Predict the structure.
Amino acid sequence: MALVDWRDDFKIGIDSVDYEHRQMIELINAIHEKLSHDAPKNEVIDFLGEVFTRISAHFALEEKIMRSWKYDQYDDHKADHERLLDEIRDIMDGYEAGTIAAAEAELSARLNAWFTDHFKTKDSRLHRHLGV
Ligand SMILES: [Fe+2]
Ligand SMILES: [Fe+2]
C-alpha cells in the first residue's frame, strides 16, 4: 500500500516543479515499500542515496527559479529544504546503524508530513507569488 497518494491539491502550477513533486511522492512510496518488505540492506542504502540525490536536485531547481525571480522568501524556503536534507541524512545514518523499524517510522512520520506540508505552504506560496 502506498504511504502517500498524489493529490491534485499538491499541484503548484509550475509544470517542471509539479512533475518532480510527483516523482518524489513515488520515491517515498518506493522507500516505504522496500523497508516494509525487508529488502536487502545494501539495496535500501543505495536507494536512499539515490533518493537523496534526486531530492537535492529538485531543491536546486526551485532555488534557481527563486533566485532568478529574486523571490522575497528565498532564505526561509531554502532553510526548509536544508532541514529536510539533514533529516534524510539522519534517517540514512540511523538505517546504516541497524534500526530498520526506526528508519521506517521516521520515513512515515517525517517525509510524508514534510512534503505534504512544504508543497502546500512554501511551494504553493512560491507559485502564487511569482504568478507563473
Ligand atoms: Fe518542491
Ligand atoms: Fe520547496
Q: What stands out?
A: Residues 100-130 form the longest helix (31 residues). Residues 44-132 form one domain.
